[in-house]
Write a structure and sequence with these properties.
The complex is a heterodimer of chains A (about 180) and B (about 375).
Chain A lengths: L2 H9 L3 H23 L2 H18 L9 H19 L6 H4 L17 H10 L4 H12 L4 H8 L3 H20 L5
Helix pairs in contact in A: 1-2, 2-3, 2-4, 3-4, 4-8, 7-9, 8-9
Chain B lengths: L2 H15 L15 H12 L20 H37 L6 H16 L4 H24 L4 H28 L4 H17 L6 H29 L3 H6 L1 E12 L3 E4 L2 E5 L5 E2 L2 E2 L3 H4 L5 E8 L5 E8 L14 H5 L17 E3 L8
Parallel strand pairs in B: 3-7, 4-7
Antiparallel strand pairs in B: 1-2, 1-6, 1-8, 2-3, 4-5, 6-7
Helix pairs in contact in B: 1-2, 3-4, 5-6, 5-7, 6-8, 7-8
The chains are: A mainly alpha (about 180), B alpha+beta (about 375).
């Protein structure tokens, strides 16, 4: 059963469809949130909230194809709400940069020097390019979702991605730039 | 860079992310798409090692508002149960304590008040002065309660209980103050409070019309005053001088002619006064030789003390001008002086040949 079909059933409050969507997306949404709040329990709670809100409002979702970008948008809003409520942790002006990973998470990867080098070069990209690459390759989001999250159209996302890859290739081939 | 190349690159990336290599695509003529796909492959192969897996997913199959509410209420309950319970207990205790502070004997709250007082007494058990102060404070409370009970015309059981409590507290407090006096500790504050309490005790009987209650009130006041007197005697004895007289004896003034003088007695009219030659003051001056200063036939005013054993002591002698012949000399009346009426008027007057005695005891309210 495709996601669209599941969403159609979920709109009818079908428990089985809701359960499947929940199971399919929970860890992805959790990961998306965790990378931005750096706290497991908080991320779990926020993930629950995302699904509660999504399932309450799923009947209003007109295009089932947009379910993924729609639920990620809810997750993004939840994270922003979270930071707004805990002003002490992060300045409000930083909230809009929420799609950046929290510094303390960093890009800790397995002991692979070559991969670490790529991660280092990511920091030399523009903020927009870094966001697109991270969402696409590390969080497995599709262009529709990324476009929705960044408030751009899919064509722009593709161009940003293209430019980011060119810049990364240059940086990898020219260590002097790092 | 055209949109078309970006789209072509993206299609290839999407396919590779799904594990598909687009063999049919020919990128040879495009701007280094294979090289960019290689970078994309390297990016896609990166795995984060520090991203945990959410544990909670296993707990919730169907997420809905009710479930979340239940979970949150459960959490809230766990978090708040102890602070809430403690707060409720504290507030209930505080409320009970505050209520008990205004309670009268016979009520449940009064028992609580007594318990808290006992705890207070226990904490100062090892410090006699502090213990006496605390007990005296409690005596003031009992007195206040008795006054309230009598004034509010509470039922007879409450009034009776209040008087019993007052009596018990009096019995518990005064011996302590007596002990303090015996030990020679600083007791001026205690004595001041005790005098104040005695004054109020004296007036307690006037707050009720019931003969039994009046009788009991008077009995308590009498007992307290009696013990206070004993305490003062102890204090005076400790001081070792005329403070005994000051504390306990009555002050007297006496006018008359000196009939005779010896080294330690002075007979004025028919009344004999003792005196201490080293302390007697004559005409506001302390004189070494009394006999040289005072002569028989001199009219004098004597300030002195009448001790409990009836002896009279002269403290200060002032010589007076001889009275005109028209004035009838007034003879002294020791008998009268020795049986003063109590209470006496507070204003002290000097009457020729007779005593005015000031009684230090509290005046009974009429």
């Amino acid at each position: 059963m495709t996601i669209q079909e599941l969403v159609e059933l979920a709109k009818q409050k079908d428990p089985g469809a809701l359960s499947t969507l929940y199971n399919d997306f929970f860890q992805r949404i959790f990961r998306f949130i965790f990378l931005r709040v750096s706290h497991k329990e908080t991320a779990e709670d926020l993930t629950e909230d995302v699904f509660i809100k999504a399932f309450e409002a799923i009947a209003k979702l007109e295009d089932p194809k947009l379910f993924q970008s729609w639920i990620y948008q809810i997750a993004k809003n939840k994270i922003i709400d979270h930071y707004r409520k805990s002003k002490v942790d992060i300045a409000l002006e930083e909230v809009e940069d929420i799609l950046e990973y929290r510094d303390e998470i960093g890009f800790k990867i397995d002991n692979d020097v070559a991969k670490s080098k790529i991660i280092e070069t990511l920091n030399l990209l523009s903020k927009e390019q870094k966001q697109v690459i991270s969402l696409k390759f590390f969080e497995d989001l599709d262009n529709t979702t990324i476009a929705k999250l960044l408030g751009k159209n899919e064509g722009t996302i593709r161009v940003i991605q293209h430019r980011a890859l060119i810049r990364l290739k240059e940086l990898i081939n020219d260590p002097g730039n790092i | 860079m055209t949109q078309e190349i970006s789209e072509k690159l993206d299609r290839a990336i999407e396919a590779r992310l799904k594990g598909i290599i687009l063999e049919s695509e020919d990128f040879s003529e495009e701007a280094d798409i294979p090289g960019l796909l290689e970078v994309a492959d390297r990016l896609a192969s990166i795995q984060f090692s520090e991203i945990p897996v959410a544990d909670k997913q296993r707990k919730y199959i169907n997420v809905n508002r009710e479930e979340k509410l239940k979970i949150n209420l459960g959490r809230l309950f766990k978090i708040l149960i102890w602070p809430t319970s403690l707060s409720v207990m504290f507030l209930a205790g505080l409320n009970t304590y505050l209520n008990s502070q205004n309670s009268l004997p016979g009520s449940t709250f009064f028992t609580i008040k007594k318990m808290s007082e006992q705890a207070q007494v226990y904490t100062v058990q090892k410090n006699p002065t502090r213990l006496a102060e605390v007990q005296l404070g409690l005596l003031e409370k009992r007195l206040s309660e008795a006054q309230t009970a009598l004034l509010q015309n509470s039922n007879s059981q409450v009034k009776s209980q209040a008087l019993i409590e007052l009596k018990n507290q009096t019995n518990a407090t005064l011996p302590l103050i007596k002990d303090i006096a015996s030990s020679g500790s600083d007791n001026s504050k205690l004595m001041q409070n005790l005098d104040n309490i005695n004054r109020q005790l004296n007036g307690l009987s006037s707050k009720t019309q019931d003969p039994d209650e009046q009788k009991m009130s008077k009995s308590i006041a009498s007992e307290s005053i009696k013990m206070t007197r004993e305490v003062k005697q102890i204090l005076a004895a400790g001081a070792g001088d005329t403070t005994l007289s000051m504390a306990e004896a009555s002050e007297i003034n006496f006018n008359g002619k000196i009939k005779s003088i010896s080294k330690d007695t002075l007979v004025v009219e028919k009344t004999t006064f003792t005196y201490n030659p080293s302390k007697l003051i004559i005409n506001s001056v302390k004189i070494d030789s009394v006999e040289n200063q005072l002569k028989s036939g001199t009219r004098v005013k004597i300030k002195g003390l009448k001790h409990e054993d009836g002896t009279l002591e002269a403290l200060e002698v002032t010589t007076l001008q001889e009275k005109p012949a028209t004035q009838t000399p007034v003879t002294s009346s020791p008998t009268e002086a020795e049986q003063p009426e109590i209470p006496q008027p507070k204003k002290q007057e000097t009457i020729q040949g007779s005593f005015i005695i000031e009684d230090p005891r509290p005046q009974t309210k009429k």
